[in-house]
Amino acid sequence: MDCTKHVLIIGSGPNAVKASELETSFDAIVVINNAWRIRSDWTHLIFPYDFPEERWPQEIQSSQTVITEKEFVPIQNDYGGFIYAGATMAFTAGYWVLGAFKPSHISFIGCDMYYPKRGKTHFYGKGTADPLREDISLMSLKAKSNRFFCMAHEQACHVGNLSDGPSKLTFPRISSTISWPETPNLRKDLIFEALKREKDLGYFDISGRYWENLDKYDCKEIKKIDNIWEQVF
Do 150 and 84 form a contact (C-beta atoms < 8 A)? Predict the structure, then answer.
């Protein structure tokens, strides 16, 4: 995996279909849940434990790999765990890519976590707005997005959003995979403070299933950390 420098991550947003028009200039193409339907040349399919088996691809090529919680939970734990990182598949896929590939560039498309009241919410029609569910790890998508960007930056990995519509991702917008904007100025003091508070608070569940032990966690403390992450740009 050392040669995997540029990774494309495809989600299920309405504009994810534009990924089919992108040139094959990626070292890996990671598709989330149903997004395997968009491009047949995907290399990795990642989904949670409750993704219905009837939605899995019927055929998987020898060049393709399925990634489940067995693979992504330990890696997300390496980056602080689901409560701090955000327990929705866009972020989970991002952290898995960071840990598994150590890439130089990650391009996201269809991972905007924006759900219009009219029209399609997903490229296949109407779907569940998973990132908008009431969850202690998703109280601030801005904070979780900023956090991921900072963790990637620490690894010298550029992160960009290829989507051109409304987005909850705070990553720089990119129109191609060739030209990348400069990294925004980051408040290193706030990043240090947020990470220290996370460590001191110690909210962590090695199984990844934090929702089975919710009485251990205080939403107010998590919000304090989210507030710091929101200000790092």
Answer: no
Percent pLDDT > 90 in the chain is 75
Type and span of the H or E element at 74? helix 69-78
Provide the phi-psi class of 146: left if phi over 0, else alpha when psi is between -120 and 50, else beta.
alpha
| 113-131 pLDDT tens trace | 988 777 677 767 777 767 7
Q: Which two tokens stand for residue 128?
A: 């569940």
Strand-by-strand arrangement of the 158-161 sheet: 65-67, 44-46, 28-32, 6-10, 105-109, 158-161
AA letter at 160: G
| Distance of alpha carbon 195 from alpha carbon 190, whole angstroms | 9
- Domain 6-229 in this protein, CATH class: alpha beta
For the chain, how far is it from start to end, CA to CA, in angstroms? 31
**Domain boundaries of the chain, sorted by first residue:** 6-229
Please provide the DSSP assignment of 33-50 as one string: GGGGGT-TT-SEEE--TT
CA distance 42 to 56: 13
Per-residue pLDDT tens over the stretch 52-73: 999 899 999 999 999 999 999 9
Beta bridge partners of 190: none
Residue 195, H or E segment: helix 188-201
Number of residues written out for the chain: 233
Q: How far apart are CA 170 and CA 189, in angstroms?
A: 19
Backbone angles phi, psi at 194, to 5 degrees: -65, -45
